[in-house]
UniProtKB/TrEMBL annotation:
First-tier enzyme category under EC: transferase
Bias type Low complexity, positions: 202-221
Signal peptide residues on this chain, from the entry's feature table: none
UniProt protein name: Dihydrolipoyllysine-residue succinyltransferase component of 2-oxoglutarate dehydrogenase complex
Length: 506
């Protein structure tokens, strides 16, 4: 007897809702067959069978809230699986049994190999197949890129698992795909024939899926999909237990439903284009950027405080030591490393800016993983410099340079952008004089840098021209008080105007 338990659901996620059982008690299952779907407030998680067997018992029912490690069901492993399958087949109509027993035709060139969607990273449950780089009939080599998948964070390349010929493309460009889903099939060996035609549809059409009643609960993933598409979740026909709409139902409905099927959709119906206009679908990354920025505004009590800093001391220090710095470390000494160091020092003094809200709790983070906003052709990404407090100026500069290059080349991974505790955004490289940066949830603070401008300021009773920069700190007022925010920004200003004291930690 093997227990089927709730797996780890991702960072800061402690519970889920049982969304749909894909197997019933008594069903025979194979290893890695999906048994049940769990819904969290962030993602949908599939729980698979750890081995061959028979699903002997379902403990957690659809709609139940379960915690990590909770028992979902039990599996009888071993020969029970082989015995259960024929018994179930005998109870089905003869025509269905016969059809199921008919073996699928094999490709003439060799056995078919599935091309599956790889794991896309922690908390990433789906992506969009943006481009097929190969078509049916094309020859491919092992590890050659077949397709590109775009998630809400990064673009992923799907490599060929074997040498062969593309026999079938299972999905189309623009389709949503999940980890493990088959997107294509390869016929092993050279000159493989195209994939066999799909089996004929059964003579009798299946019964229509039951409509979900208004009283049925709406899972988090269905709610998110319907909100993004501008449709009423109650209008989605459900195929789950008691007419409950599943994530698959929502995606299918969004892709096929008429644009004006609901009043909400009518209000968001696309307008007609003029002769000098064009319509381009937003990428998944851009959609996610828009959604997350709006969520930050809606959920956080966001406020911005400003200050300015005299950059003369850092500019003189860079000018004095730049050549020797490059000779020793192989990289230029920029401004960003000073800002990272200054922010880390200020975060140590004002820990609430380095914390996050989790329900009714505050999580204080005793580490300093600083996100650095990078603009790319596809949108803004925020890779993270890990353990910035332990890095030298050269280490920070090298880390930022590497992350920036990989961001522009599209080579960042999910892990490169997760877990940041505070963010620095440099609009000054684009000429920005002043801005109010938006938080990167669940972080509670973001520092905006701006362009350096020669301005007249009063120093010791005299008006002098100094290289000045405006700084902006946006913060979540639910967790950071105004006094703390101002203190943080003043500490950053002091460290930048006297970098030697900062570096000497005095």
């Amino acid at each position: 007897m093997t227990d089927i338990s709730v797996p780890t659901l991702g960072e800061s996620v402690t519970e889920a809702t049982v969304g749909q059982w894909l197997k019933s008690a008594g069903d025979s299952v194979k290893r890695d067959d999906v048994l049940v779907e769990l819904e969290t407030d962030k993602v949908s998680v599939e729980v698979s069978a750890p081995e061959d067997g028979v699903l002997s018992e379902i403990v957690a029912n659809v709609g139940d809230t379960v915690e990590i490690g909770a028992l979902l069901g039990r599996l009888n492993a071993g020969n029970g699986a082989a015995k259960a399958a024929p018994a179930k087949a005998a109870a089905e109509p003869a025509t269905q049994t016969k059809a199921a027993a008919a073996p699928a035709p094999a490709a003439k060139g060799g056995a078919l190999t599935d091309v599956a969607v790889p794991t896309m990273g922690e908390s990433v449950a789906e992506g969009t197949l943006s481009t097929f780089l190969k078509k049916v009939g094309d020859s491919v080599k092992k590890d050659e890129t077949i397709a590109e998948i775009e998630t809400d964070k990064v673009a992923l390349e799907v490599p060929s698992p074997a040498d062969g010929t593309i026999a079938e493309l299972v999905v189309s460009e623009g389709d949503s795909v999940t980890p493990g889903a088959v997107i294509a099939r390869i016929s092993a060996g050279a000159g493989a024939a195209a994939a066999p035609a799909p089996a004929a549809a059964p003579e009798s059409a299946p019964a229509a899926a039951p409509s979900r009643t208004a009283a049925a609960p709406v899972s988090p993933s269905v709610r998110r999909i319907s909100t993004e598409a501008g449709i009423d979740p109650a209008a989605i026909p459900g195929t789950g237990r008691d007419g409950r709409a599943t994530k698959g139902d929502a995606l299918a409905y969004v892709n096929s439903a008429p644009k004006a099927s609901t009043a909400v959709a009518q209000a968001k119906a696309p307008r007609d284009l003029g002769p000098r206009e064009e319509r381009v679908r937003m990428t998944r990354l851009r959609q996610t950027i828009a959604r997350r920025l709006k969520e930050a505004q809606d959920s956080a009590a966001m406020l911005t405080t400003f200050n300015d800093v005299d950059m003369g001391a850092i500019m003189d220090l860079r000018k004095k030591h730049q050549d020797s710095f490059v000779a020793k470390h192989g990289i230029k000494l920029g401004f960003m490393s000073f800002f990272v160091k200054a922010c880390v020092n200020a975060l140590k003094e004002v820990p609430s800016v380095n914390a996050e809200i989790d329900g009714t709790d505050i999580i204080y983070k005793n580490y300093y993983d600083i996100g650095v906003a990078v603009g790319t052709d596809k949108g803004l990404v925020v890779p993270v410099v890990r353990d910035s407090d332990d890095l030298s100026l050269a280490g920070i500069e090298k880390g930022i340079a590497d992350l920036g290059k990989r961001a522009r080349d599209g080579d960042l991974t999910i892990g490169d952008m997760q877990g940041g505790t505070f963010t620095i955004s440099n609009g000054g490289i684009y000429g920005s004089l002043m801005s109010t940066p938006i938080l990167n949830p669940p972080q509670s603070g973001v520092l905006g840098m701006h362009r350096i401008e020669q301005r007249p300021v009063a120093v010791n009773g005299q008006v002098v021209i100094r290289p000045m920069m405006y700084l902006a700190l946006s913060y979540d007022h639910r967790i950071v008080d105004g006094k703390e925010a101002v203190t943080f920004l003043v500490r950053v200003k002091e460290a930048l105007e006297d970098p030697e004291r900062m570096l000497l930690e005095v």
